[in-house]
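Here is the promised in-class demo. Please do not try to memorize the tokens; focus on the logic of going from shape to residues.
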């Protein structure tokens, strides 16, 4: 059954479970924050891609207002809930300044492939090691989902949107495996090249071949 949801299009992709901090300055979205506080409503962030509002988006709940500025601007904390599909986009909700849409909730299949999970974990470890981000890997929970690492895998915004389109964890795993198998060799070779460049001009203590 479709329902009306306030919409806040942004040029980014938000994944379920993600915490997002936003600085609010436009009057229409300041009004949206007030409605969230007063009526406990949620709102959606559909990515604004290719000069248009995407069909899919992520429902958000306002967690708190971090700061109120004298000019009316706000710093807010939000948390992502689930994915929705827009049936009908409205530039203004009834009697409001902000956009809205009739949306359907998207059901997600959380089942994963443990073999793919192990491959992804190994690829992510190697990627983070190469980039000097070992702590990021150590902070990763054993039961992590693709959504938990998707922003740290070198995806473009369009590629991240493809993950929103996937309706199962298995499908997302397959997308990530293919992506990491493509970029990991490039990253590793780039890091080796950087090491060689750094060594260029240094005095080298090398053992000559014994022949």
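The designed amino acids, position by position:
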């Amino acid at each position: 059954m479709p329902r009306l949801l306030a919409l806040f299009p942004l040029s980014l992709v938000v994944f379920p479970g993600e915490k997002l901090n936003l600085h609010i300055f436009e009057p229409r979205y300041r009004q949206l924050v007030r409605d969230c506080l007063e009526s406990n409503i949620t709102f959606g962030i559909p990515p604004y891609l290719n000069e248009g509002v995407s069909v899919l988006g992520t429902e958000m709940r306002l967690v708190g207002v971090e700061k109120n500025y004298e000019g009316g601007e706000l710093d807010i904390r939000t948390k992502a809930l689930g994915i929705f599909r827009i049936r009908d986009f409205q530039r203004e909700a009834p009697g409001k300044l902000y956009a809205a849409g009739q949306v359907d909730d998207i059901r997600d299949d959380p089942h994963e492939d443990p073999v793919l999970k192990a491959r992804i974990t190994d690829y992510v470890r190697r990627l983070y090691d190469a980039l000097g981000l070992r702590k990021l890997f150590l902070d990763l929970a054993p039961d992590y989902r693709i959504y938990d690492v998707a922003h740290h895998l070198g995806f473009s915004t369009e590629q991240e949107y493809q993950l929103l389109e996937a309706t199962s964890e298995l499908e997302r795993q397959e997308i990530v495996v293919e992506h990491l198998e493509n970029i990991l060799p490039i990253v590793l070779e780039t890091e080796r090249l950087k090491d060689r460049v750094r060594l260029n001009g240094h005095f080298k203590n090398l053992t000559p071949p014994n022949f």
